[in-house]
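Just wondering, does anyone understand what follows?

——
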Amino acid sequence: MKIFISEIDRQNARSVALKNIARFFGIEDWEFKTNEELKADIDALDIPNALTIIQLLQNYFHAYDEWFNFYQDKKAIEQQQEEEYILNAAEQLELQGLIENRERTLGELQSEFDRFQLQKFNQDQFGTDINGILNEEA
C-alpha cells in the first residue's frame, strides 16, 4: 500500500471544517487566520447550539487524527523497510473501522451544521414568532 497522506493533507482537512464554521459564526478575519487561531475562536463562542458544533468538531478531529496516525505509522514502516507495506487482515479491519468512524463523525458534524444553518436561515427570514402561522385558518 503506497501511502501519500501528509501533514499538509491533515491541516487542509481541518482548515476546511474550521473556515466553514468560523465563516458561519461570523468570526472576524476568518479567511486570514491559522487553524489554531480559528479553533481558539470557535472554542470561545458563546452562542446557543455552538457547544454542540464544537463537540462534534472535536469528535471529527479526534477520529481524523486516529485514521491519520494509523497511516503515518504504516508510512514509517514503509520508509524503514524501503518497500510497499501490505496490511494484514487485522490491520485492514482496523483501517476500515477508522475510516467508518472518521466518516461517521464528519457526517454528524455536517448534519448538525446543516440543521443549525437552516434554523438560522429560518429565524432570519421568518423570525422566531410562529403564532401568526399557527393561528391562521386555511
